[in-house]
Structures are given as C-alpha cells and as structure tokens.
Amino acid sequence: MSVSLLWAVDVYGRVYSLSTGGQQWEQCHDAVLEFKRVTAVQQCCWGIACDHHIYLNVHSSDVPIRYQEETYENQRWNPKDNFSDHLLPSDRWHWSDITGLEHQPLDSFLLPSTNWEWEGDWYIDENFGGEPTEKGGWTYALDFPATYIKDKKWNSCVRRRRWIRYRRYKATDTWAKIPSEGHSGPLPDPFNDISCGGWEISEEPRGRLSLWAVSLQGKVWFREGIHHHSPEGEGWEEVSLPGEVVQISCGPGDLVWAVLWEGQLIVREGITRDCPQGSSWVVVDSPNPEAGAIHVAVGDNVVWAVTKDNKVWFRRGINSHNPCGSGWIGMVGEMVMVNVGLNDQVWGISCVDRAVYFRQGVTSSELSGKAWKAVNVPRDGDIRSHSSASISSLHSAGCFFSGEVQAQSVMSEDLDTEGGPQRAVLEVGACPSSPPPEPPPIDPDVPKPRIPKVTSDSFISEMLSDREVKQEGATAATTASPSIPEEEVALGEPEAMCLPPALVLSPSLSGGLGDPQWSNVDLEETQTHLAVGPAVVRGDSADTCSLSSVATYTLCQGEPYGADEHPLWAWVSGGGCGVNCHSQLNWFNSATALASSVQSMSLSISPAQTAAWRKQIFEQLSERSKREMDHFKHYEQAVEQSVWVKKGTMQWWRDWKPHKWVDVRFALEQFSGPEGNQDGILFLYYNFNEEKKVRGGPQCLCMCACVWVFSVMSYLVLVFSSSPPSLQYLHAFINEVTILVPVLNDSKHTFAIYTAERTKQRWPIRLAAATEVEMHDWLALLSVSCCDSRGIQGPPSKQAIWSVTCKGDIFVCEPSPSLEACPYPTPCDQMFWRQVGGHLRLVECNSLGVVWGVGYDHTAWVYTGYGGGFFQGLASSTDNIFTQTDVKCVYIYENQRWNPVTGYTNRGLPTDRYMWSDATGLQECTKANAKPPSPHWTWVADWTIDYGISGGTDREGWQYAADFPRSYHGHKTLKDFVRRRRWARKCKLTTTGPWQEVPPIPLSDVTIVLCGAQSSVEPIPLWAISNKGDVLCRLGVTLLTPAGTSWLHVGTDQPFKSISIGGANQVWAIARDGSAFYRGSVSSESPAGDCWYHIPCPERQKLQQVSVGRTSVYTVDQNGTTENDFMTYYDTCLYYQLSISCAIAMIYLCHDFNAVLSHPGNLWFRQGLTPSYPQGSSWEHICNNVRKVSVGPLDQVSRTYNLKPGWLSSAIRSHKDFLFSQNSTLLTLHCVE
C-alpha cells in the first residue's frame, strides 16, 4: 500500500496530516494562518483560512509540474527580402498560435501567478514529426495553412518554426493563496466551504479536478481549468441554485450534493466529461424532517449525512444512474461531521469527545460499514515532550530490573510560583518516611474547562477566545477518557482535594479511582495503593514498591495536559487517504512514546540480555545436536527410500472431438533416496466409448502389469478407475516438465503442464481444480517436485532469466554457468521455468540481482525475496513477502453502421461484426456477459466510455471509418459508414509476492544497467519513464538498497515511451512521436547527463522500442501497423515478455495468448557506434515481424516475433552471427564463431 495522508483541522485552526505509514499527527508548520476547513485529494490539499480565502498545498514530487508554452514564428518569401516577416494582409500574424488566429508574441506570455517560475529562455524546437530539421528549425509549405515539410522546395512560399519555453510550479509543500476572481472580476463575497473531487469523471485529460466552493451568502462557485499542468485552475464560475447553500460535497466521480439553509439537500445532475459543473439540481428531503440536515458527504457510490441532532444517516440506492438514491438509513453514533474518502471509506468527528473516527467494515458489498473506531495516535509535539520526560525518568530511576523493583522512591510536588500547573518529579534516594507535601488549594473562581458542543464554525471563534484564559486546574480534566458526554467537567468534591499523591498525580484520576489507565504491571497491587492512600507511600512502599507505582509516577514528569495537549478536532478530510477495509494501519492501537517507555520499564530483562541469552541457548543446542549426530555416523541408513502420495479429483480438457472437460482422479506419488535424487512419471487415463484408452504422443508405452521404476522417483498419476488387465497409458518424467502455467479462464481454475515435446505439438495437459485454493496447492506441490528433480532450491540466482506472461505471471529460468560459452545453448523449448509470486506487466533485471517490475496499473515494484502467491511454507521465504495489487481494464467495443433512414444504428449487415464485440469483432462481448480475465480478478468500477483510444474520439467517444475493419479516426467524414466506441471497466487482483512497492510515481517503462557495480554500496544506474512520459533517473540504487532513495527528473521537450541503458552508461530513448534520442555525458558523477541528442530514424519509419547492450543498439519500429491490421487469435499459446540478465537472453513460448501486447515491426541495428561517437552513423535493417527486442551485456540479442497467426517465437543472436533451426512452433539457434 502506497503512503497517503489523512488531513484534519483542530478547533484552533491548526492543520495536521496523518500518514498511512506513520503513527502520529504531523502539523503543517508552514501554515501562517489558521484554517477552518480542508479538502484533500492524493496530489494536493485545498483549504479555507480564517480570512475566508482559499489556499492550495501541492505535495512535492520528484517529477516537477511543468507547462510548455509555445508560439510560432511565421514568414513569407518575396523576391526582394527572401523569407522575412513582411506578410500579406490576409496572412496570419507574424507570431501566432498553431492555428494562426491568435496573436502570440514572445513578450505576451506572463506567469499565471507568483507560484510559477520560468525554467529558461525561449528556444527553437528542431524536431518535426520525429525527425530533426535544419538548424533553424524551419518547416516549409506552399501557403498558409497547408501541410508543412522539413525540406525546402522550389515552390515553398511560406515557412514557420516553433518556439518553446517551460514554466515550473514552485509553491509545493506550502500554502499558496488562490485569487478570488471570476471571469468578470473579484468575487462579491468570501468563501465558507469547499470540496474537491471529480478525478474519476474521465481519465482524459489526466489529472483534472473539480473544485466546488460555497460563499458566505450561500452561493456556489465552480473552479475551472484544474488539471495536472495547472493545479491552481483558471477562474471561478457561479452555479445557479434553488436556494442558499451552507455546505457542499463532491465525490471522485459525478456525485455532488449540497445542504440548503432550510435543512434540505440538493443533488447536481448532468455532470459529464464535457460538462463537469453539471446542468441542474434535484431537491432531496432531509432524513429527519424535524431536524434538518447540516452536513453531507459523498463518495463513489455512497452518501452520508448529519442532521441537527448529530445523528448520522446513510443513503441507499446510490449509483451513477440514480445519483439521488432511494432512501435513508439511520446509523449508530453522533457526529459533528463526516467525510467520505477513497474507496468509499468514511471518517467522522464525534460530537462527544471531538476525536476522529474511522468507519470499519466498509466494502463494495457493505457500503454502510459496521462500527466506528477512534483514531488513537498522538501529535508530533506530544511524543517529543513525553519521550523527554520518559528518558529522564528512566535515568533517575537508577534501577536494574531482574525480576523485582527494589529502588525506593517518593513523590514531591513543585508548584509554579504563579499558581500554575503542578509538576511531579521522581526523586531517587529520598527519605521514605518524609511526609508528602500537602496539595495546593484549588481556587473555586478558576474557570472550568469546557468542551463545546456546537456544529457550526462559531465554536472555532469560541475556542480561540479561550486562549486568553489560563486553566490552572486542568490536570484532572484534560486527562479524561476519550469519551466525555458532559460539556463541563467538575474537579470533584472537597474530599478529593486531600487525596494521596498517588491519586493526585495519576493521569487516570478523571477516569475513576479504580481505573489506573497507565499501570501495566501488578494491577491488583496498584489498586491497593490507590485504596490505602498516604499510608502506603509513607510506610510499606519503602520495602514493597511495585513497578506499577513507578510507572504511574513517571507519567507526570512533563507538563500537565491542558486543552492544547489533546487536540479537539473540527474537520477531517480523507479524499487523499488510500485505505480500505483490509489496510493494516497502526492508528487504532498505537501508544505514545511515554507508554512505550512504561512498557520497557516493565520488562525484567533488557533486550541486550535477551539477545545474549538466546544466542547462548542456540549455541548450546547446536553443539549438542552435532555431538549426538557424530555418534551415529558409522550406522547405515535404516530406510533408503521415502514414499508419500497425494490424491485428488480434477478435470482434464480433452482437446479432440468431442471437446469437453472430463473428470479424473489425480495422484502424486513421490520417492526420495538417500542422496535426495528424484524423478517422476506423468500418467493420463480417460474413457472413450466406454473403453479405457490413453491418448499419447511418441512416448506411449504399453504394459500388461503394474510397472515400477526402481530408480528413486516421483510421478504424477491421473486415473479414472482401477486399472484393467490390459492398460494403455502415457508416461513422461517429471524432470521433462518445462513449465506449469495458470491459464486464463473466466469460469474454471485451470493450469497447463508443458514438456518440450508437448510444446512442439501444441498439446499441453490442461487441468481444472474445483477451487482456487486447490489449484494453488497442486501448483505449489508440482512446482516443488519439478525443482527438486533438478536440484533447484531457494531464490533465483543473480544470473536468472526473468519473464512475464501476458496474464501477468512471473517466471524465472536458471541457466547453466556454461550456457553462454557453449556453442550450442539449450533450446528455448527445453528450458525449465518456475513461477515467482506476484503480478506484473513487465520486469527488468541485471547481472547483480537487482530486479524491478511494473504492474498494469503502472505501479513500480522492486524484488525483495522468493515465494508469495500460491507458494507457502518451506517453498517460500517468510520475510519480505508483501501484499500486491494490480488493476487493469477490460475493453469491449460498441459497433454501429449508418443507413439513410435512421442514421447510425446497431443494425448491421449480415457480414458485419457483432454490434458488441471484442477488438477483433470475432467474439460477441456485451456489458452483461463480459467477465474479468479470471476468477482471481474482481470488478472495482462500472462500465465507462474510454476517450483515450489511439486515433482520437469525438465528444461522445465514437471513432469513424469507411468499413469494418479499417483505420479509425475521431471525426466524421462523408465517406464514414461505420463507427465504434470503446467501453472500459476496471478489475482488481490481490495477491502476495516478494515485491515491495516503490511509490509514488507510476511508471510505464524501466531499465537497469546490465552490469557494472563492483561493491554493495556502488550506485547502479536505473532509468524509467512515468506514465505521463517524463524521463526519470533513480538515485541511491545499490545492492543493499535496490529500491533506491529518490527520483531525479530529466527534462525533455516531449513525452517518451521507451528507454534503455547499456554499457558505458549509454542511454537511448524513444519519444511518443517515434523519434529516437541519445543522452549525452551520463556518468557516475553526472547520473542524469547533460543533454539529449536527436537521432534520425530509419527513412519513413517511427520507432516504438529500443534496447542497448554493451556496444550495440537495436530498435523496433511501428512499421505503419495499427490494431486494425491484425487480429487476436485465441490459441493455446502463452507470450512472455523479456528481461535479460548477464548470463543469457532468451524467452519461452507457452500457453494462453489472449491479447496482443504490441504491434509487430522491423528490427533495426545502429551502425557506427564508437566510444568517440556513441550516437552511431546509420541504421541497418535486420528482419521484420518483430514485437520486442532485448540485448544482453555481451550483445546477445533476443527477439520475439510471429511464427504464424496466434503463435509467437524467439531467437537469440550473438555479437558475431546466428544460425536458425526451425520446428513447428519454435525457433532455436546455434551460435557460429
């Protein structure tokens, strides 16, 4: 779980944040003013200060907020001046935008506010369409406007060039004031409430937010233009209302609710991607007509409200089609306000104790939750003051705990000279018989502490006024229990004024005499001390002083707790707090540093002594075990073989007619010998026409009796019934299994078993278990058996080959040490792959054992151990296994055809594709029958229109074409007779694996230097590209800290999509427009380099991927293909992406290829690379139909390409030459000297 923040404001206007990875409230010390309310999202926090102005706090990031300003310089040719700025009257401006309609000279660009700064001066963009232009950056055309080209021709009469300048947002991690100005000038009145949301209305444009505000006069305003490159927005727009509003709430999607002065609620309708402010209001009655609503909070699919009597209500029936819901449900608890955060989690502030509460049990199936739980964490100032007191008390105690406390102690009171709070000091060695001083008299005129019970903002002013009043007798009142129902807390009767010191100094006095909260040892004896009184202190305590009494005294070392020590919260916002019902938080049972010191005092043995004691016991046991085992060395082993059998029932897929699932009995019998060598056999039996037969391959074996393999073995048996006299069966040794693959199936828990021969024949053994747990048990057991038969144990080695399937499963292969030097390496189909827990989209590694991965949701992960997933117990490491989540989208297409009568409709021609289909149009996929990729995935959102599809869309998400399937575009023409639009729905997978999240920047590509670091502290170069196209360099990556420390942003003029770093710190990258770049002067002293060099692409080609080795650079181009030029074939094949380690570079071919991950293109090699000229000179075409290329540290090349539709293959090339040997499904190679 990535770290996120919960924001809150106390009654004194101080803003605090609580991290999901922390255990204390951190105060925002940069806040000069006092705040009334805040509303937070993941990337920023908005607030209203006491001056009624709105302020913005943008969280700092390793990737800065940059915005590119651009303008075009236009010139026309004339016979006298050649090209000049003397344009015709009908021409565009000399300095203009891209359309030429707006005048944009260089000096007209101003910073939006003082929160921005310029990165540099204006410069010319010399990149045009992915290719470098001439030095001046000019592009030529016949006239304005026309199609521009980079080369000047004889008829080029006009030209233009683009000027670029970047500005950077600098006001991060501080509160920046937002101007209160609308389109027509300053706003008439200040603001009173604010709410931020709307980031899930649409994924395009990215980073867009909706900000709603309420003024003191009850008007509602909407902030326009808030997105990633403009966090402040552009201006305010007033929204018409049916009445005066007091409070408003905006959810992540299209839900916006507000509360009227009369207590009714209104709901905003018509919120869409193109109209985020909505179109109309609908009135909803209050949950309680007698007590109107005063507060409302909305989320994705929930609405919570609070009425004037502080009752909490939940609105049922809320969804995107019915934003008004169907009815109210009363909930338990009384709150001042509530707030709905991410994942519809609910936060609230109790009206009784002003504490922050979290709603437990909120899930997608039970949105109302189960119970309220208080957030019990201290503030940062509390821990500092308490820890200093605890440390001093520990030093002053001067006792060594070895079972019983023997030190003598008495308490004395030190009164402030001005009658201030009491201070308790622990004095060691004082006379045990000295009487304690009398408690000071309590002035009845001293004002009593009060806890206001109001729900409006007036209580803030009331509490602020109390700052001038000194509350001298607040020790007992402020240490009360968290739940205080009364507004005023009495200090007690006169008899309580003469209590013994143990009672006066106890922080649990207000909670009751019989409830000492902070005593954690010998509670019964502590209660006796409290009951007896001063006699215990003066007499027996000198000899029988308990540890609990010492702990109780120590609590009062610091300043007494006043109203300012235990915050009373006024507002809370969880819009940026990414928690759910399964999150492991330390907020509810955490103790302060003071309580920790008390617990440490209660230990009879120090941690150092405990460690030494355990070490001594371990050494003694080890020595005894070794001594006893030596006595039996000369004896022979009693049992030379061990046998165990595991049986079960499964289903087997019969892949010949009639195709169906057949019930089988499944058994695994394993034999192990004295040396631990193992082997195995695979059997398969089936019924066909009431006759037992076996469908086998070339290794079928007929036997008339039960055959035993006398060598030590383990084998797998699938049986229907008892064996008949004549038995036909197929056998395959366990050490011939090359991979065990989970298979994508929307209804069954299936997996496939492959051998080298079955890979060639495309005939794997497909099995289905009854439950997911049973499938995982069998996969783990079979995987361990396969590893044992090959002598593979523990985590992958540093030379392991890593790969990722199209399903997201992670596999590793252990090459032999001599594999690289051997002229005939192991063919790809004979390599054994074992699975590692986790789920990733791509993985990258190097020869030092540093492994990074990126999920489908662009989350970065770093490898930490071995196991996870279905590996449990001995097959997995117990440490460094984390919960891993991944989110991906399932896409379906809505297709329509135009006819002259009705226009576009869902009635197509008989030869057309399904009106609801997949990307190919061959399979019917509707919203109702579309399912997640497998039962392991769960839906987390509803169907939405995807506007981010390549080629662009119109306002409704449609793409147009002349026919199915053709090239689609986002605008309609006269020749377009068909159209389509893509619908997306998110699903989520939760698993475990040895992967630790690297927050907070989402990535799209990552690359690690293949080898280079010679020590554990030497930095390892690692580069990445964010999902927005920013180039990043990771700092602090070493063998000891593979996750690194921070990101360093590397500036670019355009977004990138692929990057690779090779030998000698060669960094090559591909931009999204298909152009290639080389980063110069990258070294250990300058890890980010100095500048980008534009490398010309192959003629009329745009590149999509690059891979760099020691002295070679390979790229794959787009080859002019789109998703309409090929179709997805559903065959029994599995695609593996590559990650190359130092030893070798290969990929494997296996099962269940359901989606095309990249478009095939041409493979190119960069010629002329030398140390003095690392950019190279020209491109050489190697081959075509390549999907991905990966180069190893010794310049060995691995590529993935199509052998035939639906099947992929691989080949490896050395730095000298390579020779292919082809079979039916795979291409292997033999290196040639």
Structural class determined from secondary elements: mainly beta
State the end-to-end distance. Answer: 51 Å
- What is the helix fraction of residues, given as a range? under 10%
Name the overall outline.
globular
* Largest sheet composition: 7 strands, antiparallel
Number of helices: 11
Total number of beta strands: 78
- Unreliable stretches (pLDDT < 50, length at least 5) are 387-561, 590-604, 690-727, 1121-1157, 1203-1233
Content of β-strand: 25-35%
SSE order and pairing:
Blueprint: E1 5-10, E2 15-19, E3 25-27, E4 35-40, E5 44-49, E6 54-58, E7 66-78, E8 82-84, E9 95-96, E10 116-118, E11 123-124, E12 127-128, E13 131-132, E14 139-141, E15 158-169, E16 176-177, E17 181-182, E18 185-186, E19 191-197, E20 210-215, E21 220-224, E22 235-239, E23 245-250, E24 256-260, E25 265-269, E26 280-284, E27 293-298, E28 303-307, E29 311-316, E30 327-340, E31 346-350, E32 356-360, E33 371-374, H1 380-397, E34 409-414, E35 423-428, H2 458-465, H3 475-478, H4 501-504, H5 523-532, H6 534-538, H7 547-554, E36 569-573, H8 593-601, H9 607-630, E37 642-654, E38 660-672, E39 682-684, E40 686-688, E41 691-693, E42 700-703, E43 714-719, E44 727-730, E45 737-743, E46 749-755, H10 756-761, E47 765-769, H11 772-789, E48 801-805, E49 810-813, E50 833-836, E51 842-845, E52 851-854, E53 860-863, E54 882-899, E55 903-905, E56 916-917, E57 937-939, E58 944-945, E59 959-961, E60 978-993, E61 995-997, E62 1003-1008, E63 1022-1026, E64 1031-1035, E65 1046-1050, E66 1056-1061, E67 1067-1071, E68 1076-1080, E69 1091-1095, ...
Parallel strand pairs: 39-43
Antiparallel strand pairs: 1-2, 1-36, 2-3, 4-5, 5-6, 6-16, 7-8, 7-9, 7-15, 10-15, 11-15, 12-13, 14-15, 17-18, 19-20, 20-21, 21-22, 23-24, 24-25, 25-26, 27-28, 28-29, 29-30, 30-31, 31-32, 32-33, 34-35, 37-38, 37-47, 38-43, 40-41, 42-44, 45-46, 46-47, 48-49, 48-72, 49-50, 51-52, 52-53, 53-61, ...
Domain Peroxin/Ferlin: 64-125, 137-170, 885-946, 957-990
Biased composition (Pro residues): 433-444
InterPro entries: Beta-propeller_rpt_TECPR, Peroxin/Ferlin, TECPR1-like_DysF, Tectonin_beta-prop
